[in-house]
Amino acid sequence: MSLRIGDTAPNFDADTTTGPINFHDWIGDDWAFFFSHPADFTPVCTTEMGRTSQLADQFASRGVKPIGLSTDTVEEHVKWIDDVNDTQNTNLVFPIVADATLTVAKAYDMIHPSESETAAVRSVFIIDPNKKIRLTMTYPMSVGRNFDEILRVIDALQTGDKYKIATPADWTPGDDVIIPPSVSDADAKTAFPQGFETLRPYLRTVKI
């Protein structure tokens, strides 16, 4: 069965390029950006690993820890990181999980047999400090991820948690947000003393 939003992220023990980890312990009180790729020494994956590394400060400023996975060994990962650093002009330091037995990939439904019996598709899991899955994305092997969107949805999730709001289509930080219909006008006036706009009884926007 596929993992769903709101499920507890499966815990696991694994070897990584930074040493052995217990996944839940590794997350600790932070958020996690857990993403898989089909194989080491492949072109799209190299650019994605490099981009994640280049965005290290952006992830850190949001309290998010990146962690990658492929169905290769630690030894292969370590050799490949040299290529990533050289071709993408970066210094990759986040862990990459070794999963040659496919144990973790299967637990996270990363193996799609119509794509490959052994290589993981490009899965994304955003996991919160309570170890709950808050967002999932799945890309085919041939399409690299949009990292602007990954950062945007992390911002949206964290803003929603902080202010108890929802975000509209194409929202980016600084845009107006939506007051959920479950919040009464009276409660909204208390929560948002700056005032809000009512476009419809069910559609109220506010700047935070």
Question: What would the keywords be for this entry?
Answer:
about 210 residues; Glutaredoxin; Antioxidant, Horf6, Chain A, domain 2; 5-stranded mixed beta sheet; about 20% strand
Structure description:
With 208 residues, this protein is of the alpha+beta class. It folds into 2 domains: 147 residues, Glutaredoxin, CATH 3.40.30; 43 residues, Antioxidant, Horf6, Chain A, domain2 (Antioxidant, Horf6, Chain A, domain 2), CATH 3.30.1020.10. Helices cover 32% and strands 21% of the residues. The protein is built from 7 helices and 10 strands. The strands form 3 sheets. It has a 5-stranded mixed β-sheet with strand order 5-4-3-6-7. A 3-stranded antiparallel β-sheet has the order 8-10-9, with no helix packed on it. A hairpin with a 5-residue loop joins strand 6 and strand 7. Helix 2 packs across helix 4. The longest helix is centred in the C-terminal third of the chain and has 17 residues. The radius of gyration is 19 Å and the shape is elongated. The mean pLDDT is 94.
Number of helices: 7
CATH topology of the largest domain: Glutaredoxin
Largest sheet: 5 strands, mixed
Tertiary shape: elongated
Proportion of strand residues: 15-25%
Name the poorly predicted regions.
none
Which strands sit side by side, in order, in the main sheet?
Answer: 5-4-3-6-7
**Cα distance, first to last residue?**
39 Å
Radius of gyration: 19 Å
Number of strands: 10
CATH A-level architecture of the largest domain: 3-Layer(aba) Sandwich
Number of domains: 2
The first-level CATH class name of the largest domain: Alpha Beta
Helix content: 25-40%
